[in-house]
Design brief:
- The two termini are about 30 Å apart.
- The chain is built from seven helices and no strands.
- The longest helix has 20 residues, at about 30-50.
- It is mainly alpha-helical.
């Protein structure tokens, strides 16, 4: 079913939809989720490199790959999983945290990582950085 551009929410999804198509992966809900995942994972990686956090050992090469794959392989299905988690948590950023926990699975290397997910952050920290990354693209 084709929707008239006159009924579009904005000209960007109406008469200009074809011209802004490449922006959908950046500025859509999926794009925001993708950047939230990126920020959470990169923060965790930075914490693991920090000597001032002795409770968190440096990442092994395998765990670095696992974390990078969470970012690089994020799919629409993953974003839908995050939205499903959000429906129960009523919190968008917390849903991202729970999703990353799921992706890490259970194992000796992941227990400490899970404890430091979102450590020292507020949701606003994650969102502000995510929006900034969206605008930098």
């Amino acid at each position: 079913m084709k929707i008239s551009t006159l009924k579009a929410i904005s000209p960007a999804d109406g008469r200009y939809a074809g011209k802004v198509n490449d922006l959908r992966d950046i500025f859509s809900e999926y794009g925001l989720i993708r950047f939230r995942v990126l920020v959470e994972v990169r923060w965790l990686q930075c914490l693991s490199d920090e000597d001032a956090v002795p409770e968190l050992a440096p990442l092994t090469s395998v765990m670095k790959d696992v974390l990078n794959d969470i970012i690089d392989d994020l799919s629409i299905d993953d974003a839908e999983r995050i939205k499903k988690i959000e429906a129960t948590t009523n919190h968008d950023v917390k849903a991202v945290e729970y999703f990353i926990r799921e992706k890490l699975g259970d194992g000796p290397e992941t227990a400490a990582l899970k404890d430091f997910l979102h450590f020292g952050c507020t949701s606003e920290d994650i969102n502000n950085l995510s929006y900034a990354l969206m605008l930098s693209k």
